[in-house]
Amino acid sequence: MRVTMIGSGYVGLVSGACFADFGHDVVCVDLNKAKIAALQRGEIPIFEPGLDALVANNASAGRLKFTSDLPSAVAQADIVFVAVGTPSRRGDGHADLSYVYAAAREIAQAVRGFTVVVTKSTVPVGTGDEVERIIRETNPDADVVVVSNPEFLREGAAIEDFKRPDRIVVGLEDERARPVMEEVYRPLYLNQGPLIFTGRRTAELTKYAGNAFLAMKITFINEIADLCEQTGANVQDVARGIGADNRIGSKFLHPGPGYGGSCFPKDTLALAKTGQDYGTPLRLVETTIAINDQRKRAMGRKVVAALQGKARGKTVGVLGLTFKPNTDDMRDAPSIAVIQTLVDAGARVRAYDPEGMEAAKSVLENVEYCEDAYDAAKGADCLVLVTEWNAFRSLDLARIKDLMISPVLVDLRNVYRPSEVEAAGFAYSSVGRPNDGETIEVISSAAE
After folding, report:
1. pLDDT of amino acid 437
2. Which residues are catalytic?
3. Which of 159, 280, 380, 412 is the most exposed place for a label (fewest CB within 10 A)?
4. pTM above 0.85, yes or no
């Protein structure tokens, strides 16, 4: 099929490259000519494992092209995906749909023949109706069907998620789009790929509901972690105990400094605003947002507490800046609030991240960037692990201790065993665990 992807950011580039790998002819469009020129040279603007090779292989095979000429790309397409940004709108927190609507107008002017227009951007319920209205208003003769096909890609595992999805949600109001969507996803469909067809508004809401539920799950275990710290319980064993229940599941039950990234913060906020607009406030979602915002600075205060409440004039080494490993994404990363809290308390911050330091420089001030984890530990009064990159999972603790002024380690991701770190001579603080590393015995039994 001839596929046009409008927007060559994270979602558009990954989706376009994967569709090309399925054998479709894909054109990725972006109005940023510098980005397109870089992509044509084989330079990938984001860090995502495996994406550089996937783009290079399909570009060399002629199945993947990049252009700033939107009218030409749309005119020749069987299916046009809209994968532009929908950031939180300044002032009220609603999703900013200006890029989506601008793309709809340009598509309407350029489309030729029957074309399926697919909104892949994360958009509030009802956006597809407005996209269709804009296209009809701009070009009454356009033979277009508007579909919702939200993405469910995890940064750091996006290619695997696209090629082996848990589900593919397709929302449509015109059955003419069904065979087109089945064809574009045919390689997955033949392997029993879980295509779920719904109404358009249902598909739009499914994306937000999924992200909000996961955000609530993260926030729930973080609050349980706080309770564990006060009661002497071990949150990791609590998580194992409840996660073994298939109705709950073990994923997203890892305590830490709060959620961040490109999706959860803006999507929970947009969903909460939508609920308010429709007179059905989503109290659980609203509370999740408030708790998560407060938690990030609370983790900064946890580091100050590890310094006996005296951070002024002290040096803190920070390991990990991105919101999660295997990405260079700094959007709403917990490290931002943690570091700002430390700076506000008068600390000097030295930080290292394997991929995120360039992006961090645009959002973090008063931070010294280091060459590696050991450089960040040099001369530090405290070392705090914020993002659980694999590079930080097996540090030479003896070497770290020798480099530091005082051996204090705050582990916000529970990467290390308390007994192991304390045996190495550190004062150790983690999230929701007693320092004796208490664990429960897991007994397997067929009896109920």
Report:
1. 42
2. 263
3. 280
4. yes
